[in-house]
Design a protein that fits this description.
119 residues; 5 strands; five-stranded mixed β-sheet
Length: 119
């Protein structure tokens, strides 16, 4: 009976170690994705600093770095973005610290910011 108990405890301990290891790997992977996203993301104050009518696309890209384009966002299937954005010249930045949120900026033909939104 003692041998069976030792085997069962060994199996339970092995399962706990396996589950703990998987959880640690998953957590590390999520952190890596978040860190990568944050490298190309902007903060709420940065989003707020973009002024409709005065900011230009060139200014925003110079301050915030390379954005995602409408085509890239559309290909990812991000929900909540109006179809009209895909017909305009719009760019998108991830929200720093939040993988599921985007900030969108749309521009007229002259490159002036005409609208911005959070998705």
């Amino acid at each position: 009976m003692k041998t069976v108990l030792k085997v069962m405890l060994g199996i339970i301990l092995g399962c706990v170690v396996l589950i703990g290891g998987c959880a640690a790997l998953f957590s590390s992977a999520v952190d890596d994705v978040q860190n990568e996203s944050d490298r190309t993301a902007i903060s709420v104050p940065e989003y707020g600093s973009a002024k409709v009518g005065t900011s230009t696309r060139k200014q925003l890209e110079a301050r915030f770095g390379d954005p995602q384009t409408s085509n890239e966002v559309q290909a990812e299937g991000v929900a909540g973005i109006p179809e009209s954005d895909f017909e305009q010249s719009c760019i998108y930045y991830a929200r720093r610290g939040d993988l599921a949120r985007l900030f969108g900026f749309c521009f007229d033909r002259d490159g002036k910011l005409t609208s911005k939104a959070s998705y």
